[in-house]
Amino acid sequence: MLEQIIIILQQKCFLDPQKPVLIGVSGGGDSLCLLDLLTRSGYPVVVAHFNHALRAEAAADARFVEGFAGKLGLPFVLGQADVFDYAQTVGLSVEEAARHLRYTFLFEKAHQVGAQAVAVAHQADDQVETILMHLLRGSGLSGLRGMRYWTLPRPWSEEIPLVRPLLEFWREEIDAYLWERNIEPVVDKTNRDTTIFRNRLRHELVPYLSTYNTGIRQVIWRMGKVLDSENELVEGMVDSAWEETYTGQGDGYLSFRYHVLSMQPKGLQRRLIRRGISLLRPGLRDVDFSTTELALDFLDTPTKSGRLVLAAGLMILLEEELLWLADQAADLPRSFWPQLPSSHDGCKHLTLELPGVVRLEHGWVLACDLNKQVEPAYRSALDNTDMFQAWIDASKVRFPLTIRCRRPGERFYPAGLAGRSVKVSDFMINVKMPARARANWPLVFSDDEMVWIPGYRLAQASLVSDSTAQVAHLHLFKMDET
Amino acid sequence: MLEQIIIILQQKCFLDPQKPVLIGVSGGGDSLCLLDLLTRSGYPVVVAHFNHALRAEAAADARFVEGFAGKLGLPFVLGQADVFDYAQTVGLSVEEAARHLRYTFLFEKAHQVGAQAVAVAHQADDQVETILMHLLRGSGLSGLRGMRYWTLPRPWSEEIPLVRPLLEFWREEIDAYLWERNIEPVVDKTNRDTTIFRNRLRHELVPYLSTYNTGIRQVIWRMGKVLDSENELVEGMVDSAWEETYTGQGDGYLSFRYHVLSMQPKGLQRRLIRRGISLLRPGLRDVDFSTTELALDFLDTPTKSGRLVLAAGLMILLEEELLWLADQAADLPRSFWPQLPSSHDGCKHLTLELPGVVRLEHGWVLACDLNKQVEPAYRSALDNTDMFQAWIDASKVRFPLTIRCRRPGERFYPAGLAGRSVKVSDFMINVKMPARARANWPLVFSDDEMVWIPGYRLAQASLVSDSTAQVAHLHLFKMDET
Residues B420, B413: contact at Cβ < 8 Å? Predict the structure, then answer.
């Protein structure tokens, strides 16, 4: 076992035999076995014990571990916290709370003593139980693969890894090792308490499953190993797809390129959405299956409103090219739309000369100039495919033009509508202008008559015709803000 | 349920409502439900029943299904075979044998009647049981994802798909449908026989797991769905990697580009090896975990002999650039090595003029010509990096040269060995010439003195020196055989 562990420590846990390792020791057999092996492998070891103070013997256990470390001449650090209190405060189960406090302690100490890693003594039986637990609670590949030899466990650590060198040793092997080395561990009586979910797996489920297949532990352990390597493959694909689809993150929101995301295979879409959710909700340990499926259905067939509430206060929102994943309360950025600067009583009124420019928010600019050559393709407003440019008959408007936002009840005569007028607000809904952008969308007026809704439609009255003598060219564009 | 099934039939089973579907009907509730739904959806249906003759009621069941089809005015086809006899002959379990005979029958009939697909009535509970069965027996992603809506089930069919439209409906939903439609199925009493593995899963394991999580069926079903889409991703990667690594297949063997294969991530290597094994052993339903791991270890660290027996009479063999996966008895091709044509008493003796060529096996050619310009880089034989070309002092050999294979005990004086001689057979071993190629490897002699072992070494005596007046150029190469 010592020879095997020396190889595992270097090749699977990536440890340097010269640098210190902090090891979490409960006093139970697994952790004493790992402590003994680490010491014999020549690693500088710091022994850490966290007293959960949940059991009567807790203080005695702490003294036992301190004594054990002392006999080996190893430094010892002790942690303690009120687990019950913490569980109530943050609304976690006692088990979850204990785990959180324990790892927080271990990584704080590891940082303080300059340890290269935190080592814990999970072994092959724990691995099997972990996989079964994920299976029973519902999980994809990332849960079914089980625990890993080396990992950076967020949120506790972004730098110091957590390593588990005993993952391939069974309880029997560890017991035999302890017997041979004459090491006597403390007995945690709660280990036999089958009201604790994990203990029930250990003492009831695994023996029960063995009646179907006597090699069930090996079967599950191997499955974890195979799935781990296949999960690596999938994660590699997700990383590339993330690069292609993810466009950025802000306070309570992030966004994807919708058309790229919606072209991905279902399996990748699911992973990308999950990764997005976990960035916005790092606390959420497992994203609910139906939440993700809702989002996937939305990608296939967006709702009419272009938005959908998922769960946990998150919504998904489709606007033009962008798919937003956001807190329902998040203030999404408007910088990718043209918006009028705000004044204290609404949007600002601006004037546009011929020639002239006005500056809008976030680098957007609206420009007007004389068009010397009337391009035939744009003589009809409806042939124009670039809706952010327009050509108008300069004699049919009065300069300077006015740039302002819409007014309640205001109407306009869109080109191509045979002289009928529509309410501006209805028009904006019909052409699917993003709802959040409507109030401050820049509109072009000649006096109080609407000339152009940039990005969408010219008014009938100012269209270029055969008798047009002078053409004005309007252009809305975004300048690079850097 | 009817509305849902109409969508599933088209979007998940890819069926054309105009074309006939052959449906396997046992007479049980699931198959009658599917039959009723298919008929109501307007598909032309052919009813097929396979009489396993394993139970007392079997003949009555067959008559029942025939009558049911008759009442609906649907064509009916009946199959029957001696399952026990077949199971004994081919060495399968009775369950496996029945399954094999049933699907063989269904696809034969489907072919005869021109059906677009064979439909079977597996539902959501069957799906959960299938996944659990794979889990208990040990499986990777491809087993844990469960059954699929659409599949080409080899070895029964390469063209007509097997579809399972009921995969998302639970037993309770189907029972409710039957009740509502007033359909009374036959009861298969063996369904309650828990000595049958699957029945034990249904009646014992699933209820037991529900004590851990009441939603266990949904959890497992969803897991299958997620893993299916992730398996698709992995399969896509395997397809590309297969293109890059697989070089071809023959009778009882196939080969990979070793250096490309050994650079792949572990997860891909495992899949590629498994795919290779399943091509050579299509009967093997699941490739054993340890078999694949043996092969993966070999990829990392080939054995000294360059070969390893895996299992099921298969071996893995590394030769130069190629990794072979082969029957132990397979006659691997020699076409990628230069080989002398065989004569009845060994290899053929050939003569090589100056200038001249001799043709070897499989398009290999050995050529000799006068080299007008002695290239300085090749003045020393040891500087030559292309071991399939050699430059010799024409005055130190006698033309025509002789091309033949080695003789027992024969020795030669390799260049660079300070005049010492070695046994040709030992030399071949030392330079790692593939064992299978040694006997017929073409060697170049001047009378009976060895001049060149193509691909490896010149003899000391014929080296070009400063006093060389005339240089002969020897060249061994493979011509395109097309």
Answer: yes
